[in-house]
Automatic annotation (TrEMBL):
Associates with the 50S ribosomal subunit. The lineage of its organism: Bacteria, Pseudomonadati, Pseudomonadota, Betaproteobacteria, Nitrosomonadales. It comes from Sulfuriferula nivalis. Residues 3-167, 175-348 form the EngA-type G domain. Keywords: GTP-binding, Nucleotide-binding, Repeat, Ribosome biogenesis. This is GTPase Der. SMART domains: AAA (SM00382). CDD domains: EngA1, EngA2. The gene is der. It comes from the Bacteria. GTP 1 binds at residues 9-16, 56-60, 119-122. The keyword GTP-binding applies. GO terms for molecular function: GTP binding; ribosome binding. SUPFAM superfamilies: P-loop containing nucleoside triphosphate hydrolases. GTP 2 binds at residues 181-188, 228-232, 293-296.
Length: 433
């Protein structure tokens, strides 16, 4: 599992500037999806071969008692509890403030490593920068400039130095499913329905907080693994959501799985939280099946309404198959798993170069990329550059002049030609020559 770096500090010290720098290296697979809103406080990044998750806690107002600021403070405290490493940012231009001291007091009680980061230090001598921050008693301060990028790579390398490497998940050759959805959508009920009478083959007790639980089960003679999300844990004979909702755990589960089942509550409105979760799933490029749950006991009128709302608010999930199920009554589960199988197969599909090239050439013959200025881009051949999700690399000339909409046209064409249901697919242009 990727380690989680949490950025903490009072407003204006440069957290979001550092966040942007820490997350921009990753080429987002779905950078150009129209209508997708993102939660900009969570992102992925990589230094060298080390991937990580970053959380920007926004602000830290430990003294407020209620209202929106209180909510933010609660989120911050939860993120601090779930962090693998904390970067506590201060601002050399304002010096060490009273609020910095309050935050430092709180952070000194954390069980994970905390690094003190002095920002806005461009062009300044290190000793001068860090001197006054020693009094925060959080070890040797590190000087960086988030906006100029000075010291940032060193900082991340040091921060991740003592975090154990993500143990390579033994390559499962079957769907590893994360059930993602907001609280009360019916995730635990669905886990129990899946397991039902089926034999649970193995059950790992959670060890440390960094371990996720994997539940292996068989259905219709096929193996599946469920990954715990946000505290769906066994209590007695059944699984229940026993922890508060955690974005970090949700992101880790998305990362860890190869197929997501997004669980929506048909008896509630589609919320921003649903859209944000969908955004995380797309960002990760995961294969996806949508389960619209609690379909029992709804009138036709209500069903039409929720379908329309889903179509409007989650339009960008059109690549996924939608199922209308009742986790409680156990209806619709077999078709749901058929789609999980299909999405898994699509995500892992091996696409041959001759076939890809033929489809490309036909697509270009049917509809040429528009000329930009004197250039007419000429796609010539294609090969598969990766899977889960499938990445198709197109070669040719003047490909850097191809528009996003033409790229989407090619993506759609490949998806249809290979009948890839349930996985995003990315076309990338090789503009090297
Ligand atoms: P946040 O509120 O902690 O997320 O802070 P921001 O990232 O929004 O930054 C606050 C202000 O500080 C912005 O005007 C940034 O441009 C500026 N800033 C951030 N990093 C640096 C830096 O390394 N050097 C300087 N000079 N300014 C910075
Ligand atoms: P979680 O927080 O996502 O794990 O949600 P739970 O599985 O705990 O379910 C939340 C509530 O919704 C419980 O009261 C469930 O009994 C109820 N629920 C779950 N699935 C269904 C369903 O298919 N139909 C109906 N009517 N209620 C359901």
């Amino acid at each position: 599992m990727k380690p989680t770096i949490v950025l903490v500090g009072r407003p204006n010290v440069g957290k979001s500037t550092l966040f942007n720098r820490l997350t921009k290296t990753r080429d987002a697979i779905v950078a150009d999806i129209p209508g997708l809103t993102r939660d900009r406080h969570y992102g992925h990044g990589k230094v060298g071969s080390k991937p990580y998750l970053v959380v920007d806690t926004g602000g830290f107002e430990p003294v407020v008692k209620d209202g929106i600021m209180h909510e933010m403070a609660k989120q911050t405290l939860q993120a601090i509890d779930e962090a693998d490493v904390i970067l506590f940012m201060v601002d050399v231009r304002t010096g060490c403030t009273a609020q910095d001291k309050i935050i430092a007091d709180r952070l000194r009680r954390c069980s994970c490593p905390v690094h003190l980061v002095v920002n806005k230090a461009e062009g300044m001598r290190r000793e001068v920068v860090t001197a006054e921050f020693h009094e925060l008693a959080l070890g040797e301060p590190m000087a960086i400039s988030a906006s100029h990028g000075e010291g940032v790579t060193d900082l991340v390398e040091i921060a991740l130095e003592h975090i154990p490497d993500a143990t390579e998940e033994e390559e499962t050759k079957h769907p590893r499913i994360a059930l993602i959805g907001r609280p009360n959508a019916g995730k635990s009920t669905l886990v129990n329905s899946f397991l039902g009478e089926e034999r649970v083959i193995a059950f790992d007790q959670p060890g440390t907080t960094r371990d996720s639980i994997h539940i292996d089960f068989e259905r219709n003679g096929k193996p599946y693994t469920l990954i715990d999300t946000a505290g769906v844990r066994r209590r007695g004979k059944v699984f229940e959501a026993i922890e508060k909702f955690s974005v970090i755990k949700t992101l880790q589960a998305i990362d860890d799985c190869n197929v997501v089942i997004l669980v929506l509550d048909a008896q509630a409105d589609i919320s921003d939280q649903d859209a944000h979760l969908a955004g995380f799933i797309l960002d990760a490029g995961r294969a996806l099946v949508v389960a619209v749950n609690k379909w029992d006991g709804m009138s036709d009128y209500q069903r039409d309404n929720i379908k329309r709302e889903i179509g409007r608010k989650l339009q960008f999930l059109e690549f996924a198959k939608f199922h209308y199920i009742s986790a409680l009554k156990g209806t619709g589960l077999n078709p749901l798993l058929v789609s999980v199988d299909a999405a898994y197969a699509a995500a892992m599909a091996k696409l041959s170069t001759p076939q890809l090239t033929r489809i490309l050439i036909d697509a270009v013959a049917a509809h040429q990329p528009p000329k930009t200025g004197p250039f007419r881009p000429k796609p010539r051949y294609a090969h598969q550059g990766g899977m889960n999700p499938p990445l198709i690399v197109v070669h040719g000339s003047a490909l850097d002049k191809i528009s996003d909409s033409y790229k989407r046209y090619l993506e759609k064409t490949f998806v249809q030609a290979f009948k890839l249901q349930g996985t995003p697919l990315k076309v990338q242009f090789n503009v090297g020559h």
